[in-house]
Automatic annotation (TrEMBL):
The keyword Repressor does not apply. The lineage of its organism: Eukaryota, Viridiplantae, Streptophyta, Embryophyta, Tracheophyta. This is AB hydrolase-1 domain-containing protein. It comes from the Eukaryota. Gene3D superfamilies: alpha/beta hydrolase. It comes from Panicum hallii var. hallii. Coiled coil: none annotated. Pfam families: LCAT.
Length: 455
């Protein structure tokens, strides 16, 4: 799987689907060897584990109301079979790969920024929900009812089960609507903050059901950013009482350069028959995609994108992470400028410390987009040149470890970074050495568990 682009990029790239499917095949038989029976803490039991997936690992259901105005007849009738209350699978649904239906998918996935309310909303006539919150089932199976196609967190969950964890007792899942993000202080984020509150309650009840032992949060990719915000937005006594450790896998703390490619050109990751521009327009509307653009604090003045079409007086125009509003304007996404400037930039400018011990597992040594050169054709053409650097294939090394090194300077903050050579952004969920590390960390926390009272 090394070097494959992956799920961070807001999976709505249809291609991600293929990555997920192929991952599930290569997973057969994987992972088991990493399982050891986790120490039961001298009879006191285990610390509960809460799994927080990355963007594409979540599943969304939708239903359409009278307000829905489909762009085609196909979209009016698709999907022909719907569940109780009219709910059907929106993400992940393989029909996204069929060209006429890609359009239906895109118009239903799309968010819009409501300037009056200063918040993001679903498209008119589209209601969405995340089912099975608290359970790991939607993280483990592409179809939780059939349980045939395994989802991307299945190996990790199975490894924990082999080590003695049990679904619903001390193992939980916290899926979310990955299209939405969070915003800086003073800006509402109805969907994102409701998720944080749900997650907070899940962590508290997991702890209460497990002898008062605080939870271990295991978060992949975008899930790490949500987990960090949960911690930063909770008082220190809450953190100390409820969270034993944050374990992040491939967390894109400072965003990724690949995200600029997604915004400019769309990102079908090379899958045929998918209209990149259609996917691009949908991907642009996702608030979490704005969140994943390269952060100025991490990428500084480094030139990330050059455009020969936008040069003044025949020259080139260069964009660093500090030029993101200009970049959004130049790619023709004016609607994104204000939400980025007001909501996202203040959020990514100050990356708070987790305030609980943290272990960051990061893949390195996989070619990762580091800069892009666009030619005379501008941003509607694919880049003329793509320069690769170090990272996990999706997230740049600077973003994976830069902010973590800054936390390490703080005496109160316990930080551990585990580098996994040649492990890709999503491959980390399937990689034997990564799974062994996760078990090692959880094991050592559980060995300390005797000091908690059962009350
Ligand atoms: C980045 O660019 C700004 C403005 O051009 C400059 O003031 C600043 O010193 C530069 N920072 C670094 C680290 O080079
Ligand atoms: C613009 O950038 C391209 C690619 O980096 C380079 O080859 C070219 O010389 C530059 N042109 C100018 C006028 O800077
Ligand atoms: C990018 O930002 C730098 C420093 O903040 C500024 O000097 C430069 O003009 C900006 N470039 C564009 C294309 O906006
Ligand atoms: C276990 O407890 C010891 C002593 O209090 C502490 O130093 C160590 O960091 C703890 N280990 C973990 C994984 O929490």
């Amino acid at each position: 799987m090394e070097g494959r682009p992956s799920l961070l990029a807001l999976a709505p790239a249809a291609a991600t689907v293929v990555v997920m499917l192929s991952l599930s095949c290569s997973w057969c038989g994987g992972g088991a060897s990493a399982a050891r029976v986790i120490a039961a803490g001298g009879g006191a039991g285990r610390h509960p584990v809460v799994l927080i997936p990355g963007a594409g690992g979540n599943q969304l259901e939708a239903r359409l109301t009278d307000e829905y105005r489909p762009c085609s007849l196909a979209c009016r009738v698709w999907p022909p079979v719907r569940g109780r209350g009219g709910w059907f699978r929106l993400w992940f649904d393989p029909s996204v790969l069929l060209a006429p239906l890609t359009r239906c998918f895109a118009e239903r996935m799309m968010l819009r920024y409501d300037a009056g309310a200063d918040d993001f909303r679903n498209a008119p006539g589209v209601e969405t929900r995340v089912s099975d919150f608290g359970s790991t089932s939607t993280l483990r199976y592409l179809d939780p009812n059939l349980k045939i196609l395994t989802g991307y967190m299945n190996t990790l969950a199975s490894t924990l089960e082999k080590a003695g964890y049990e679904e619903g007792r001390d193992l939980f899942g916290a899926p979310y609507d990955f299209r939405y993000g969070l915003a800086g202080p003073g800006h509402p984020s109805a969907v994102g903050t409701a998720y944080l509150q749900r997650l907070r309650l899940l962590v508290e009840s997991a702890r209460a059901a497990n002898g008062g032992r605080p939870a271990i949060l295991v978060a992949h990719s975008l899930g790490g950013l949500f987990a960090l915000q949960l911690l930063a937005r909770s008082p220190a006594p809450w953190r100390a009482a409820n969270v034993a450790r944050l374990v992040t896998l491939s967390a894109p703390w400072g965003g990724s350069v690949q995200e600029m490619l997604t915004f400019a050109s769309g990102n079908t990751l090379g899958v045929p028959f998918v209209d990149a521009s259609l996917i691009r327009d949908e991907q642009r509307t996702s608030e979490s995609n704005l969140w994943l653009l390269p952060a100025p604090g991490v990428f500084g003045n480094t030139t990330l994108v050059v455009s020969r079409a936008h040069g003044d007086g025949g020259g080139n125009r260069s964009y660093s992470a500090k030029n993101m509003t200009q970049f959004l304007r130049d790619i023709g996404f004016e609607e994104g400028v204000e939400p980025y400037r007001a909501r996202i930039r203040p959020l990514v400018e100050a990356l708070p410390e987790p305030g609980v011990p943290v272990t960051c597992l990061v893949g390195t040594g996989v070619d990762t987009v580091e800069s892009l050169v666009y030619g005379e054709g501008g941003f509607d053409e694919p880049p003329e040149e793509v320069v690769y650097g170090d990272g996990d294939g999706t997230v740049n090394l600077a973003s994976l470890v830069g902010p973590v090194k800054a936390w390490a300077d703080s005496p109160a903050q316990v930080v551990e970074v585990v580098e996994l050579p040649k492990v890709s952004h999503s491959g980390i969920l399937n990689d034997k050495s990564a799974l062994e590390q996760i078990i090692r960390i959880i094991d050592s926390i559980n060995l300390n568990a005797t000091s908690y009272q059962t009350s």
